Amino acid sequence: ELDPLGDAQALAADTAPLPLKLAALADFLASPLQAWAKHRLGLRGLDEDDPLSAADEPFASSALDATVLLREVFFAALGAVPAGQALETADLAQAYDAARLRYELAGRLPTGVFLQVERARHLSLLEAWLANVTRHPGDDALRGLASYSFGQAPRGVPGAVLAGPLELEVELEGAPRLVQLHGATQRVLPGCAGSLQLALGGQRAVHYLRGFLDHVVLAAAGHACAHEAFQVLVSPGRLAWLEHPKNLRAFRPFAADDARAYLRALIEDFLGGGHGYLFPVEAVQPYLWAWHEQGAQPADSLAEAIEALCRDAFRTHSGKHGPLAQLGRYRAPARAEDLAWARFGPYVRRRCEGELSL
């Protein structure tokens, strides 16, 4: 049986600075249940990190391995284009082949004819990414991309902007506690004007949520957005107009103090108790956005919207991804609407992509 009270009291009893991953906060917003199980209780999926659970010779790369490989290849190909030459001329095949052998020998790519099929599929995806991002945000912005890292140097991201952990004093069980946030942002546009993510499949709510959190963390650390809005760009693995309001999310920038206050509230919420309930972002965010747009609460409650999503076997959501597999015993929380506005209110109220002229 999970013990949320014991977890919170144990944190409060320890007075040392508490390290917390930025990924844990992103996971918390995406699915509090899975984030609590993974980051606070230390649970893992049955197959996670188990070498015996994987085939010796994979027929295809995993989604995680493919994402890491293709992002590495993509940015290496862009970086190899000489100054003054259009980025659309990037040699994706050469960059892919330069990294391929390392992944193949590590067992993260298939071999033989299966590798030929995988390579063709991967190059097609890389070409879609290139076509999308050279149209928007364009070459100048792409050449100025940077990743910001707090408390650690990210692997495979040369030229990252390094800083110490982002420190925030929060209150847990009535006592002050220093929390040190560690982790790295996605690739950030010049002037902290937005973030860029490359997705294997379609654009999902968690992608936009992660980009929004990048802006909050950057603003809290003093890296202010120098533009009217912070754009969150997510390139899917197909051709898409990233500047179209349907594909774009943009947010009115945070001031540093407001960003730090929001992060404190999230951290206190996450660490202050247990989260044994269903609250996937795929149900919560659209519900609040409809409420915000219409100026009135939808007819169904948020709890009903959450449980309808979770009962639908044909729809995926963040609650399905994590160490807890049996979700039938969990329900939506009490005061779901209050929780939603506390966690997602800034995300919803600051959205402004419809106001931009791109």
Give an overview in words.
- The chain has 358 residues and is α/β, with parallel strands linked by helices.
- Helices cover 44% and strands 12% of the residues.
- It is built from 12 helices and 9 strands.
- Strand 7, helix 8 (205-220) and strand 8 (230-235) form a beta-alpha-beta unit.
- Helix 2 (22-30) packs antiparallel against helix 3 (32-40), helix 4 packs across helix 5 (92-105) and helix 10 (281-294) packs across helix 12.
- It starts with a helix and ends in a 9-residue tail after the last helix.
- Residues 49-55 have low confidence and may be disordered.
| Number of strand segments | 9
Q: Describe the sheet with the most strands.
A: 5 strands, mixed
Using only CA atoms, what is the Rg? 21 Å
Figure out the total of helices.
Answer: 12
One letter per element, helices H and strands E, the order comes to HEHHHHHHEEEEEEHEEHHHH
Q: Which word captures the global form?
A: globular
Secondary structure category? alpha/beta
State the helical fraction. Answer: 40-55%
Q: Provide the low-confidence segments as ranges.
A: 49-55
Mean pLDDT value: 91
* Percentage of residues in strands: 5-15%
- Measure the end-to-end span: 52 Å
Key structural traits:
358 residues; five-stranded mixed sheet; four-stranded mixed sheet; 12 helices; 9 strands; globular
Summed up, what is this model?
With 358 residues, the chain is of the alpha/beta class. The protein contains 12 helices and 9 strands. The strands form 2 sheets. Strands 1, 2, 3, 4 and 5 form a 5-stranded mixed sheet that branches. It has a 4-stranded mixed sheet with strand order 6-7-8-9, with helices on both faces.
